[in-house]
Amino acid sequence: MLRSHKIPVIIITGFLGSGKTTLLNRLLKDKRNKNAAVIINEFGETSIDGQLVMTTREEIVEINNGCICCNVRGDLIRILKNLISEAHKENSPLNRIIIETTGLANPAPVIQTFLMDEVMSTWFEIDTVCTVVDSKHFPISLDKQEEAQEQIAFADLIIMNKMDLITLEEKEKLLDRVKQMNVTAEIISAKNSNVPLTKVMGVKSFNLDQKLKLRPNLLTTHHHHHTDRIQSFVLESEKPLMLERVNNWFSYLVEIKGETLYRYKGILNIQDIDHRVVFQGVHMLFASNDDKAWRKNEKRKSELVFIGNNLDREELEKGFNYCMGDNVFIQELQA
Questions:
Q1: In sequence order, what are the residues at sequence separation of 6 or more whose Cβ sits closer than 8 angstroms to the Cβ of residue 179?
Q2: Strand 285-293 relative to strand 186-189: parallel, antiparallel, unpaired?
Q3: Which residues lie closer than 8 Å to 309 by C-beta, 6 or more apart?
């Protein structure tokens, strides 16, 4: 069953103590969320966050004693299906889902839940993946906790919270580091998670055009002073891509490099095709679809973003060039 209007999902992630629940409460005060359902995940048996969430008309569901990204992921699907069923029984519209993950969560499986499960992809679409950062303590987390880097990698919006607690020099170093790890996420500074909610709601997770327009200077920023595992690259070209070669390259990426690719997405200009082709992937889960037609005076170009673990930019560039007719990539594979 195809649905023209899917229920938007906001995924709020961030390391322990970053300010996720404060942001959630700000969202719940907004009248546009009066028919929202809230799902809170805590790792322990007792939900503290659930007690801290303001009392509202929204339905709040707690998932405890496990991380939403692994052993209770099945609970997430079950709860979402129940929410749909209850909304229909009561003839009450469900206009949004807000998920607050535990600070220990890897966002990838949560995102995959809405792409892999047929019912989930029919009823829901990810609006935005928002990561809240404790700017005061985050550098330590980045160095010691793998999850902290993954939360940055998967974000569409990064809220640099508690920026009032660090010096100007510390701000510049931290922002530079975060930008290098995720080249397309919008980054905004905040105190007490106080941000314009228009940055969190109604954003649409996939909007590469918008992200690149927000910070086009990042495409030419190459300096890096850290050894973070997470890296992000943008590849772009106005030269049309060959469809068969694109399929071959992505098959290779998904099968051989899928584990190291946290997120990859883009807009493709395919030879002899008059519409844009958009794609996005999470690890070994890949999806693409035909998008709107290229406008008459629009510059046709392909823009690809790769975010992952210890990526080889040179290898990705060779694969991209292969799609445009260069044979170095395939020659090296056959060698």
A1: 187, 215, 218, 221
A2: unpaired
A3: 229, 230, 231, 259, 260, 262
Give the span between the Cα atoms of 279 and 198, in whole angstroms: 25
User: How confident is the model at residue 226, as a pLDDT?
Assistant: 42
Residues of the chain with CATH 3.40.50.300: 7-216
Find the angle CA(204)-CA(265)-CA(124) to the nearest 5 degrees.
40
d(CA 169, CA 173): 6
CB distance 62 to 40 below 8 Å: yes
- In this structure, the strands spanning 124-134 and 157-161 are parallel
CB-based contact 265:246 (threshold 8 Å): no
> Which residue pairs from 254-259 have beta carbons closer than 8 angstroms and sit at least 24 positions apart in sequence?
254/281, 254/284, 254/286, 255/284, 257/308, 258/283, 258/284, 259/283, 259/284, 259/309
pLDDT per residue over 288-327, tens digit each? 888 889 988 889 999 998 988 888 999 999 999 999 999 9
**In which residue are the tokens 């980045």 written?**
142
Q: Quick one: pLDDT at residue 73?
A: 58
Q: pLDDT confidence of 2, banded at 50, 70, 90?
A: very low
For domain 229-334, is the CATH number 3.30.1220.10? Answer: yes
User: Is-contact 318 335, C-beta < 8 A?
Assistant: no
**CATH pick for 7-216 out of 3.40.50.300, 3.20.20.30, 3.90.1150.10, 3.40.50.11720:** 3.40.50.300
Identify the residue whose tokens are 């690890």: 283
